[in-house]
Amino acid sequence: MDGTRGSALYCIPFLLNKAPSKEWNDIFINKWNSPRSFSTMHRPGIAKVINDKILLDGTTIEEVKDYHRDTLIMCVDDTNQEYKELIKMKLKRQQIENEKVKEFERSLNQNDIKF
Q1: Does some domain include residue 114?
Q2: Which residues on adjacent β-strands are paired with residue 14?
Q3: Widest CA span of the chain, in angstroms?
Q4: Closest CA to 63 of 2, 103, 8, 115
Q5: Which domain range does residue 57 map to?
Q6: Does residue 4 sit within a domain?
Q7: Chain segment 91-104, per-residue pLDDT in tens
Q8: SS3 78
Q9: Domains: count for the chain
Q10: Is residue 85 part of a domain?
């Protein structure tokens, strides 16, 4: 540490309960870079997700305790909510598609065409 501004910034990991999907990662990074509320000490662009960890690369433990903790929790909660909605929409689309296939198969099995 040379005493210059930024010389004591670290990469601080936060363990998730599992490695999230790419979609979750993308949502989280967007939420971190543009959170719905944040302090003047917020640092967009320092978060990344690698395997089962969120990394804040370019901060201090003190900043995490004083500023980033609440934003991080909020962003994870917001990401989980948005991801859950995304999964529901995907499931609904898949159910609709499955029903279309079943309806098509039923129409084929009716033997309406006689030769």
Answers
A1: no
A2: 54
A3: 90
A4: 8
A5: 10-109
A6: no
A7: 999 999 999 898 88
A8: helix
A9: 1
A10: yes
